[in-house]
Amino acid sequence: MAQTNNPPGLNLIRAEDLKSDLYTFADARFRGRSAGTIDELKASIWLSDQFRAIGLKPSGDDGTFFQFFTLLRKQIANNSTIEINNTPLQLWKDVAVSQMANIHLDAPIVYLGNAANIDTNAIDVNHKVVAVEANSKGINLNLSLPTWRYNRYIFANYGLPLLRRGAVAIIFIADEEAEKAWADATENFKRGSYDINGEANQNLSIRSPQSISALSPVIWLHANAKETLMNNTATIKMNLVVSEYLYPSVNIIGMIEGTDSKLKSEYVLYSGHSDAHGVRNIIKGDSIYYGADDNGSVDVAMLANARAFVKHPSKRSVLFVIHGAEERGLLGSKYFSEHPTVPIEKIVAVLNGDMIGRNNTDSAAILGYKPPHRNSFDLVNMALDANKEGPNFILDTTWDEVTHIEGWYFRSDHLPYARLGIPAIMYTSLLHRDYHTPQDNAENINYPKLKKMAEWMYRTGWKAANSAKRPATDKDFKLER
Length: 481
Known about the structure:
Helices cover 28% and strands 24% of the residues. By secondary structure, it is an alpha/beta fold. The strands form three sheets. Strands 1, 2, 9, 12, 13, 16, 17, 18, 19 and 20 form a ten-stranded mixed sheet that branches. An eight-stranded mixed sheet has the order 4-3-11-6-7-8-10-5. Strands 14-15 form a two-stranded antiparallel ribbon. The radius of gyration is 24 Å and the shape is elongated.
């Protein structure tokens, strides 16, 4: 169809700018931009410099582009010790701590056998240290990051019921799947847990580091430990120390003022996140998790959109918020939604992006498209019209279904805003084999695809920022969790 509804700044979204910006932002010098590190802060400064050069108005705290918040990190201290039968185990090599607790324990170990054969309702585990052999039966690992998630599923299926029945500690013995996952899982365990200091994370994401607040530790041993434990004569001495640290993270916020005397007090908010996963275990010869697609692709698309809106302002004001610490549990978006630098009731729409630079050039997806995830029929229609007028992607809507195994709607920065009833959608080109690996680098981005995704976000934002009426929130919107 003829493109008769092109917004005026479309020609300012250029593949060469996206590529140049992303090669800089996803460079090794930022070391994967892990939240709560100097690397995240350095990358945030670079983003703020781009905001300034483009001509955005600083809209953070104290006349800056920055809104700092404090992360509370809890981590197993290096002086923690674990012994089985008086033999010291090397932390992270011989034994891994998946759930932390400050505890000093000297106790016998009760071996319960293979997890698949345990009836947690028929055994007495109160005040006992129990050992369980992991079993993958009934666990669907046909999803992204199975090596990151396997230990969580084992804990949810078998460990949590035992803790609820009074176990004081759980030892999981690795099966074949857990052994394959050891390197990735241990990297996650080492990092511990993160939250906003002074606030309780409301389990916004399935990536929340611990599903319960418990005093009972959970540890993992390699498969060869089974022989030592199965005769029910083994003992454990455990002295775990949980260290707590305060780290800064930051949201980067810029604004373009609207042209309409009344509507400029309302805002369309573009959303992305700055952090990736830092330096971790080596995969294919590299240990820097560059985060080019996740989420550098969105950040540079936001820069391109900002150039378009600066040159051709809309009636409403446009707010660009690149959130910190998304990978730690949506912490930056949670913080901004609770401490907005503009009146929260004046934010009319949130256009969030998460991974928009990979896979087939002609396909894409939006989340928040169908109930119960849809919270604004009006905003979804704007996005669909924008797609038809421009990129004309074939849209995969299955990822927005409640039954989809990834549950991705709950894993990105639109969520805190949607929970407040603000119309919100998420743009994505979906997952790929390089997700959360060092191979998510600038070289592997599909730049024609990224350009089309950036144009789609711009077209939608232009509609939302110029419509006579703000997008309405669906009546009785309520998420399934």
